[in-house]
Amino acid sequence: MTEVVTNTAPPLRDEAAAAAAAAATASGVEVRTLAEVADLTAVTRLFESIWRPAPGNPPVTAELLRAMVSAGNYVAGAFDGPELLGACFGFFGGPGKGGLHSHIAGVATAGHGRGIGFALKLHQRAWALRQDVTSISWTFDPLVRRNAHFNLTKLAARPQRYLPDFYGPMHDGINGAGDSDRLMVAWDLASPPVRAAAAGVPARLDAVSLRDRGAAVALAADAGGAPVTGPADAPLVLVAVPPDIEALRRADPERGRAWRVALRDVLGGLLAGGASVTGFDRAGWYVVAKEQA
InterPro entries from the entry (predicted)? Predict the structure, then answer.
């Protein structure tokens, strides 16, 4: 479930717009909403170049994006001059446009390392606040370390649910043919942590320090890189993911599947039991707080 906050007073909207503009300037792009068929077609081609789907299975189509935009939904692109380097697409969910679901966002290889993804998300945040919506949800593969860090630290979104095999087989160049487990996150756009993150000062966690202070290690990698589980017998629990699951899936599919099963059991089990993910250490650890009686 997403939580809807109705406090979208002009100062918050102005603050969000300023943060979005600063992020776009820092990354050297112009981020703008898109509505014309030519631009929407460019978005579909960009997504296909990133995900490399099987023939006949594009992530989105220009016709779908056109219909979504005409119904008042969100499609935006990040441009360096005439070149489209990133895009993001989201649509409203019920009840009554209470929240926005961000379905897909991606940045071309040529735009990596410039902060374009951050600029796109801050533009989406500012746009949503102008619609009096302050909660955005989306899903991501919890095994992808860089995405976990981006979503949970850089943006300060928070996981709500673990969703086993959410999309079914996807058959593309990123997800492979295995189960498409996802974390559903909620981005509370008006919360202090999100406002701080948008200003460039996100809260950061140190798994080594937390472990020294008694955090339990419920999932880690052994000397060979295989997943190994441990007891989740402390108020704070650390859950590891491999450094590069996409490369691992290509090089050792069986080990990639083992990580999927282990993370589903450990992280999915903790969330199902009432625990909450409080953040992510860039070194590859989810930090989970267990519900206390």
Answer: Acyl_CoA_acyltransferase, GNAT_N_AcTrfase_prd
> Quick one: average pLDDT of 36-58?
94
| 55 CB burial (10 A radius; 0-12, 13-18, 19+) | exposed
pLDDT at 5: 42
Domain span including residue 43: 10-198
pLDDT above 90 coverage of the chain, percent: 87
CA distances from 45 to 51, 53, 59, 73, 235 (A): 10, 11, 10, 20, 46
Over pLDDT 70: what percentage of the chain?
Answer: 92
Q: What is the pLDDT of residue 6?
A: 47
Domain count, the chain: 2
pTM of the entire structure?
A: 0.92
Q: What is the pLDDT of residue 146?
A: 96
In terms of domains, do 128 and 253 share one? no
Q: How far apart are CA 201 and CA 210, in angstroms?
A: 20
Regarding whether 212 and 174 lie in a shared domain, the answer is no
**Residue 22 placed within a domain:** yes
**What is the spatial distance between Cα 79 and Cα 39, in angstroms, rounded to a whole number?**
11
Question: Which of 163, 179, 198 is a domain's end point?
Answer: 198
CA angle 185, 186, 190 (to 5 degrees): 150
Cα–Cα nearest to 6, from 100, 130, 132: 132
Q: Do 59 and 165 share a domain, yes or no?
A: yes
Find, among 104, 97, 109, 87, the residue nearest to 43 by Cα: 87
User: Over 50: is that where the pLDDT of 81 sits?
Assistant: yes
Query: Crossing angle for the helix pair 37-51 and 62-70, nearest 10 degrees?
Result: 130
